[in-house]
Amino acid sequence: MESPEITGRIGNRGDLTKGSIVKNIWRLAFPLIVGNLLNDAFNFIDMLFVGKLGPASIAAVAMSGVVVGIMIIAAIGIGAGAMAMVARFVGAKEFEKADHTTVQSLFMGIAYSIALALIGPPLSSPLLKILGAQPDVVLLGASYLKIVFVGSFTIFVFVLLASSLRGAGDALTPTKALALATFLNVALDPLFIFGIWKFPRMGVAGSSLATVISRGCGMVYLLHVFFTKKSVLHLNLKKLKPDFSVMYRIIKIGIFSSLEMLTWNMSGLIMMRIVAIYGTFVVAAYGIGMRMSNIILMPGFGIGQAAATLVGQNLGARKPDRAEKSAWLSVGFYQVIMVCGTIVFLLFSPQLISLFSTDSEVIQVGTDFLHLLSLGFIFMAFSTVLARAMAGAGDTLTPMVISGICLFGIRIPLSVFLSQGMNLAARGVWLGILISSIARGLIIAFWFGRGKWKYKMV
Question: Mind telling me which residue stretches traverse the membrane in this protein (predicted)?
C-alpha cells in the first residue's frame, strides 16, 4: 500500500506508469502542444509590435533573437538533464529526490543568469557587430539585449521549473504559466514600445522589458505552485542547499542536449549561406518553407516531450517494455499527423506560400521545396519523437551524435554537391535536406530499436 504522501503527489496528475498508455500520451501531449503554440505566439507578438517601428527595429530584434537563442541553449540543456532525472525519480516514487534535483537545476540556472547579467551588457554591441549588424541596428539591438541579459534569471528559472514539472508528468501547469506570460506580453508590449498612457516610449527596448516582466510573472506563478505544494514537486526553503554531485549528473545528461541545439543552429547558419548563393527569391522561399515545416513539427515536439516523460517515469518504475511501447505509440500518432501534413503540402503548397508572398518566383521555388520536404515527413516522425524519448531515458549523447552526422556529414555536403557539383541549383539543396531527414529518421529508429537506452543510468 502506498504512503499518504505518494498518494497525494500522484493524485495531482495520475500515475503515468499505470493505466492506458494512449490516454497518458494525450494527457501530456495536448497541453505541451498548446504550450509550444503559445511560445511561438509570444515571439510573434513581439515581432508584430516591433514591426511598426520600421525595418531597423525588426532587424534588431531578429538579430538579438539569434544571440538570445544561443544564450538559452545552456538553460535548455540543464532543463533536459533535470527533466530526465525527475521523470526517473517520480516513476520510482522517490519524490524527495525529484524535488532535490529541481532545486539543483535552479541553483545552476541562477548562477548562469548572474554571470550573464554581469558580462552580457558590455558584450551586447560587439556580439551584434559580429553578426554583421549595421550601426543603427547595433544601437537598437544592444538596448534590447542589455535588458534581456540583466533579466535573464526570469527566463531561466521559468524554463527550469517548467522542465521539471513536465518530467514529473505535469504538463498543464507550465502551459498555464506560459499562457499568463503571453497574455501579459500582449498587454505590456504596446505600453512600453509606444509609450501609451504614462509609460515611457522605449521602442525596441520596451519589447525586451515586456518580455522579462511577463516571463517573470509566469516564473512567480510557478514558484507559488511549488512552494504551496500544489504540484507533484515541492520546494522547501529549508532544503535549498547546493549539491554539486547532483549538479554534475544534470550537466552530464544535459550537456549533449545543449550541444545538439548548437549543432542545429550552426548548420542552419551554414545552410542559409548555401541558399543565399541563389538569390533573394530562393532565400525567401527557403525561409517561408522552413516556417511552414515548423508548424507541422509543432505537434511532434509536444508528442515527443510526452514520450520523454513516459519513458523516464516507466524506466523509474522498472517497466522498460511499457516505456518502449509508449514511445512507439507516440511515433504512430505523430505519423498520422505527418501523413495529413504531407497530403496538404503536396496539394496546397502554392496557396500556402502565397499567404506569405505574392511573387510568382517565390511561390514556384517555395512550392518545389515544400513538395520535396513533405516526402520526408513520415521519417521525421521517427526522429522528432524517438530522439526525445531517448533523452527522457537520459541518453542525450546518441541523438546528438546522429544529428551531427546527418547535418554535417550528409545535409551540408550533399546540398553543396547536388546544387553546385550536379548543377541542380536550389533543388539540389532541397534534395540534400530531404535525404538527410530520411537518414536521420531511419538511423534514430534503428538505434532506438536496439534498446540500449533502457539501461541508461541517471
Answer: 58-86, 106-124, 144-165, 177-197, 203-226, 270-289, 327-349, 369-389, 401-422, 428-448
Nearest to 77 by CA among 218, 260, 222: 260
Alpha-carbon distance of 85 to 312, in angstroms, equals 8
Q: Is the pLDDT of residue 215 over 60?
A: yes
| 350: phi then psi, degrees, rounded to nearest 5 | -60, -40
pLDDT at site 4: 52
Q: 180: helix, coil or strand? A: helix
CA distance 124 to 143: 8
Please write the tens of the pLDDT for every residue from 27-69: 999 999 998 888 887 777 777 788 888 888 888 888 888 888 8
Element (H, E) at 435: helix 426-450
Can you read off the three cell numbers belonging to residue 85? 532525472
Measured CA to CA, the distance from residue 434 to residue 449 in angstroms comes to 23
CB atoms within 10 A of CB 268: 13
Q: What share of the chain in percent tops pLDDT 90? A: 71
pLDDT score of 207 more than 70: yes
Other C-beta atoms lying within 10 Å of the C-beta of residue 120:
19
Q: How far apart are CA 303 and CA 300, in angstroms?
A: 5
Give the total residue count for the chain: 458
Domain boundaries, the chain: 4-242, 256-455
Q: Are 212 and 69 in contact (CB under 8 A)?
A: no
3-state secondary structure of 270: helix
pLDDT digits (tens, 9 = 90+) for 386-439: 999 999 999 999 999 999 999 999 999 999 999 999 999 999 999 999 999 999
Whole-model pTM: value is: 0.90
Contacts of 255 (CB under 8 A, 6+ apart): 77, 81, 396
Q: Do the beta carbons of residue 138 and residue 125 sit within 8 Å?
A: yes
Contact of 133 with 60, CB cutoff 8 Å: yes
